[in-house]
Write a structure and sequence with these properties.
Blueprint: E1 6-7, E2 31-38, E3 42-50, H1 61-65, E4 68-70, E5 73-77, E6 83-86, H2 88-101, H3 109-122, E7 134-143, E8 156-165, E9 176-180, H4 198-202, H5 205-213, E10 218-222, E11 230-233, E12 237-242, E13 245-249, H6 259-270, E14 275-278, H7 282-290, E15 294-301, E16 305-314, E17 317-320, H8 328-341, E18 352-354, H9 357-365
Parallel strand pairs: 1-3, 9-10, 9-16, 13-14
Antiparallel strand pairs: 2-3, 2-8, 4-7, 5-6, 5-7, 6-18, 7-8, 10-11, 12-13, 12-15, 15-16, 16-17
Helix pairs in contact: 2-3, 3-9
This protein binds 2-OXO-4-methylpentanoic acid.
Length: 366
């Protein structure tokens, strides 16, 4: 693994978007991180270079067999102008789990966190400071061998790109409408459902389009074998408040182990709320709703943060949750997580890591 990170200065810098409404993942900063892998050299040639197109052979394995993994995390600006990352160690550990499943050589987690910090420090001016805004960090690895045989690539590229973002859904705390998908499935146990890999999202697009055409925001996936048990939503994990308990589908090999999911479970337990990670059947959930026991539903994710769910549709059944409004617990979780991320709430759990802006920038200048 290369120890030093080189820096190539851009000729021109782009205009920053200011505090305008940013949306999600549409703008990209001036620089990106790049690093290559070969069997002989391992991960090498770590560099920060101007953001731009990359050149790949048309036969590269990524184009044909989708050998790819990715991550999503964010850098947050605090009121006193510091910059924090939220649990980057968890993202990097998950990236290596995904690499393992996709037969991609593992990364040095600490080194990639160092690369993220350096890139974020260089791009500090792109970190938005309005409430709900942040700098989204997307590390990803692709197989680059020019070869059409179905084999793991011998060469790879790791890239990290940055995007200033606002809410993933139009308005961060307006409840979303979710459609329970009963025809298509996302993943099965033994497959790649727990890995953060492009194919899982490609497989979701047809159902996502269908749900949007029907007037919904996202799809709720059921298990791939029996179509009975709830797994996750398009871009987030899912939680249900049933009376005074909170239920979430147990990780079973086909569900993404979300960093926000894990953080929410820790917070709820700390607050003395009973959390059950269990198999949740859609039938049972709708029965609980009929009996007025389903009090709140919310999704969790890096992009989605905490997204309250206001409506759920499954076959002919429709549930309006919490009167279509944001529930108290969803709001408390949103305030606490975003409070810790933005430094407004003291981080007693050691979840944030500060990007030492001056130190990182000086190291690049040398
Ligand atoms: C994230 O929450 O970071 C994700 O990667 C979800 C989605 C945007 C694909």
């Amino acid at each position: 693994m290369g120890q030093s990170i080189t820096f190539k200065k851009a000729d021109h810098l782009k205009e920053k978007p200011g505090s305008a409404k940013l949306g999600f993942g549409k703008l990209f900063t001036d620089y990106m991180f790049e690093m290559d892998y070969s069997t002989e050299k391992g991960w090498h040639d770590a560099r920060i270079v101007p953001y731009g197109p990359i050149k790949l052979d048309p036969a590269a394995t990524i184009f044909h067999y989708g050998q790819e993994v990715f991550e999503g995390l964010k850098a947050y600006r605090t009121e006193d102008k510091r910059v924090l990352l939220f649990r980057p160690d968890k993202n990097m550990a998950r990236m290596n789990q995904s690499c393992d499943r996709l037969n991609i050589p593992k990364i040095d987690e600490k080194f990639v966190i160092k690369a993220i910090k350096k890139l974020v420090a260089i791009e500090e001016a792109w970190i938005p400071s309005e409430p709900g805004q942040s700098l989204y960090i997307r590390p990803f690895i692709i197989g680059t061998d020019a070869a059409l045989g179905v084999h793991p690539s011998a060469t790879y590229k790791l890239l990290i790109i940055l995007s200033p973002v606002g809410a993933y859904f139009g308005n961060s705390m307006s409840p979303v409408k979710i459609y329970v998908e009963d025809e298509f499935v996302r993943a099965v146990k033994g497959g790649v459902g727990y890995a953060k890999t492009a194919g899982n999202y490609a497989a979701s697009l047809k159902a996502q389009t269908k749900s949007e055409e029907l007037g919904f925001d996202q799809v709720l996936w059921l298990d791939g074998v029996e179509h009975k048990y709830i797994e996750e939503v398009g871009s987030m994990n899912i939680f249900f408040k049933i009376d005074d308990e909170v239920w979430t589908p147990a990780l079973n090999g086909s569900i993404l182990p979300g960093v926000t999911r894990a953080s929410v479970i820790e917070l709820l337990k700390k607050w003395g709320i009973k959390v059950k990670e269990k198999k949740v059947s859609v039938n049972k959930l709708f029965k609980k709703a009929e009996k007025q026991k389903l009090k709140e539903v919310f999704g969790t994710g890096t992009a989605a943060v905490i997204s309250p769910v206001g409506f759920l549709k499954w076959e002919d059944h429709v549930i309006k949750v919490a009167n279509g409004k944001t529930g108290k617990l969803s709001q408390k979780l949103y305030d606490t997580i975003t409070g810790i991320q933005s430094g407004k709430i003291e981080d007693k759990l050691g979840w944030t890591q500060e990007v030492k802006l001056q130190k990182e920038k000086e190291a690049v200048a040398k």
